[in-house]
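Morning, I've got a small favour to ask if you have a moment. Here's the protein in full, and shout if anything looks odd to you:
***
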Amino acid sequence: MDAVHLPHPLRDHPGATRAAIDAFWALALGVIAAYAFFAALGAFAPGDVLAVTIVVAILVALFCVRAWTNRRREPEKDPRLVHARERRGF
């Protein structure tokens, strides 16, 4: 009896992986922005919520590392658009 082979949800769908990573970074930026907003309003002192301050500092550091490593990466081109452009002769 043959086994049913289902596609791997992330390995076989790189678009889903990219979307999950982008969603994480969008959420991380939202957390960083909310922290900065409420800290600027004076809703709390960063020393009073030390655990949250440390988590946000780690997120900021990770985001800076990500931005630094991606600064020279060329944007990915959609192969369908490349094919259509080559077909038209551009």
Remarks:
- The helical segments are 14-41, 50-69, 79-88.
- The chain has a mean pLDDT of 86.
